[in-house]
């Protein structure tokens, strides 16, 4: 069974600084997808970024980027120029290619301080 | 911009009552998921549909929960009879048939069973 581990229950960062959230996963699959979802206080789950395992290039979306280390089974999220609106729970998720059923981590609570 | 919609957004009911939650997936998406989120258990997958057929409901308590897709534009999750331990936020998510396993979440239904 696949597992997703987010070892940092809580993190904080000053506005405008950079923060990295960690995620590790365990799988024997070779084709899979990794995701980061953001859940602000409104509780809406928002897709932040997606990475295909077969792509070596790290995905980026504006201020959000990932460091995908396939051999180490690590998938960290870097948030640059942190903004107050980035305050949220962040969930890492894994899905075997085509299985459609993701496994979610327990989440990391990020607080951005002014 | 296409979104998953859920109704009601909030529901307060008494123990023993029937609760029905509705979800309208994004038009054209062929996978639909129901999740339950609590502080203790995190995000749990309850049921999963593909092309309206239930493929996995192993995470759902069968004696009181039921999930259906009467048509491609409506998914329902029913609890009968409801219990206080069912209090949670219930999310619906839908995904496209492009094998990327990406899910788009609705805003959730916050259920409180007294």
Q: What is the strand and helix layout of this fold?
A:
The complex is a heterodimer of chains A (114) and B (114).
Chain A: E1 3-5, E2 10-14, E3 19-21, E4 24-26, E5 32-39, E6 46-52, E7 60-61, E8 64-69, E9 74-79, E10 88-96, E11 103-104, E12 108-113
Parallel strand pairs in A: 2-12
Antiparallel strand pairs in A: 1-4, 3-9, 5-6, 5-10, 7-8, 8-9, 10-11, 10-12
Chain B: E1 5-7, E2 10-13, E3 19-24, E4 31-38, E5 42-50, E6 53-56, E7 65-71, E8 74-79, E9 88-95, E10 104-105, E11 109-113
Parallel strand pairs in B: 2-11
Antiparallel strand pairs in B: 1-3, 3-8, 4-5, 4-9, 5-6, 7-8, 9-10, 9-11
Describe the structure.
The complex is a heterodimer of chains A (114) and B (114). With 114 residues, chain A is mainly β. Chain A has no helices and 12 strands. In chain A, strands 2, 5, 6, 10, 11 and 12 form a 6-stranded mixed beta sheet that branches. In chain A, strands 3-9-8-7 form a 4-stranded antiparallel beta sheet, with no helix packed on it. In chain A, strand 10 and strand 11 form a beta hairpin. Chain A starts with a strand and ends with a strand. Helix content of chain B is 0%, strand content 54%. The interface between A and B is medium-sized, with 23 and 23 residues.
């Amino acid at each position: 069974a696949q597992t997703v581990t987010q070892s940092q229950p809580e993190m904080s960062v000053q506005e405008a600084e950079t923060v990295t959230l960690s995620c590790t996963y365990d799988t024997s699959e070779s084709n899979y997808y990794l995701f980061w979802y953001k859940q602000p206080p409104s509780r809406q789950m928002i897709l932040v970024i997606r990475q295909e395992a077969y792509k070596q290039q790290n995905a980026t979306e504006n201020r959000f980027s990932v460091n995908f280390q396939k051999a180490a089974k690590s998938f960290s999220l870097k948030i640059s120029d942190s903004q107050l609106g980035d305050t949220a729970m962040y969930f890492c998720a894994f899905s075997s290619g085509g299985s459609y059923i993701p496994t979610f981590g327990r989440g990391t609570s990020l607080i951005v301080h002014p | 911009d296409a979104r998953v919609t859920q109704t009601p957004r909030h529901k307060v009911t008494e123990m023993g009552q029937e609760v029905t939650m509705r979800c309208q997936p994004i038009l054209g998406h062929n996978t639909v998921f129901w999740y339950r989120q609590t502080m203790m258990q995190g995000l749990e997958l309850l049921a999963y549909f593909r092309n309206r057929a239930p493929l996995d409901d192993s995470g759902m308590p069968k004696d009181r929960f039921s999930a259906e897709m009467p048509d491609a534009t409506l998914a329902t999750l029913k609890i009968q009879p409801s219990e206080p331990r069912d209090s949670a936020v219930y999310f619906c998510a839908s995904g496209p048939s492009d094998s990327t396993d990406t899910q788009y979440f609705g805003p959730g239904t916050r259920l409180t069973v007294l």
